[in-house]
Amino acid sequence: MERLDKFISSMTEYTRSQIKKLALKGKIQVNSEIVKDCSLKIDPESDRIYVCKREITFKEKVYILMNKPDGVVCATQDLRDKTVLDLLSDDVKRKDLFPAGRLDKDTRGMVLITNDGELSHRILSPKKHIPKYYLVRLKENFCEKYAKEFEQGIIIDGGEKCLPAKVRGLENCPDAAFLELFEGKFHQVKRMFAAVENHVESLVRIRMGNLSMPENLESGSYVELLHKDVEKLLKTQSFEEVYNEFDSIFSSYWINKL
Ligand code: URA
Question: Tag placement on the chain: N or C end, fewer CB within 10 Å?
Fold first, then answer.
């Protein structure tokens, strides 16, 4: 059993004082009763709770996959820019959500939003070897020699050495590359291509572990992941397999979007 206001506060964006005010206005319902006393004890598993007629369901862990648009930042709050959390509708917003990892403001693509700190750590820690895949549009054509340089662990500006990474060009698109990384240093992809005297014109993250971004997920849209999708995030395949799958199934779709 749990206090009504504590339950609503942990599942939504409402603060306890907002909940108290809503209750006094008769906006909170438990089963078929309007409840004005927020200290009421409820059973989150069996009672049905409504705020302003919207049902608040009990969910411990939440996993949302967003196709981040250009111009939006991966942060929980920002004074100047829209954040990925601002793009969520009220019925999924809750205070404990955060983006698991960062894409730059001008990078698009796959971002995981969750309240699961442990999963986030498993996905982001370079020691856990969960690959992230990027599609890159370059200023100059892709050059085969990049593969060897990235594989050896390229040194980026400031003298930082990157972990070995795999990269390949794409057939029919000489200025694009498909890249696998196991870490996420600040502006890493841009700095890696700068280190080989090229320049990233646009960047999209399209896959993490074995989970690819669904093609029909519009920019700025999101889906809640099922348990089987979350499991895919933690599974891996060889770079060759992922590249071949990408090249045969998705490449023309994504290249048109780059
Ligand atoms: N590397 C970058 O340079 N930017 C990103 O957003 C992600 C990886």
Answer: N
Q: Residue 171: pLDDT above 90?
A: no
Amino acid, res. 173 = C
Three-state DSSP class for 151? helix
CB of 86 shorter than 6 A to ligand 1? no
Task: Convert the pLDDT of each residue in 3-37 to its tens digit.
Answer: 999 999 999 999 999 999 999 999 999 999 999 99
Three-state DSSP class for residue 229: helix
192 φ, ψ (degrees, to nearest 5): -65, -45
Ligand 1 atom closest to 104 (CA)? 6
Distance CA 64, CA 100 (A): 10
Tokens 């006094």 belong to 24
Q: No. of H helices and E strands in the chain?
A: 8, 17
Query: Phi and psi for 73 in degrees, rounded to 5?
Result: -100, 150
Any idea what DSSP says for residue 171? T
Among 160, 200, 197, residue whose Cα is nearest residue 177: 200
Which atom of ligand 1 sits closest to the CA of residue 106? 6
Q: Give the per-residue SS3 of 16-71.
A: HHHHHHHHHCCCEEECCEECCCCCCEECCCCCCEEECCEEECCCCCCEEEEEECCC
User: How far, in Å, is the centroid of ligand 1 from the Cα of 106?
Assistant: 9
- Beta strand residue intervals within the chain, DSSP E: 2-3, 28-30, 33-34, 41-42, 49-51, 54-56, 63-68, 98-99, 108-114, 132-138, 155-156, 160-161, 166-170, 173-181, 200-208, 211-212, 222-224
The pTM for the full model equals 0.91
**Whole-angstrom distance, CA of residue 169 vs CA of residue 61:** 38
More confident residue, 32 or 252: 32
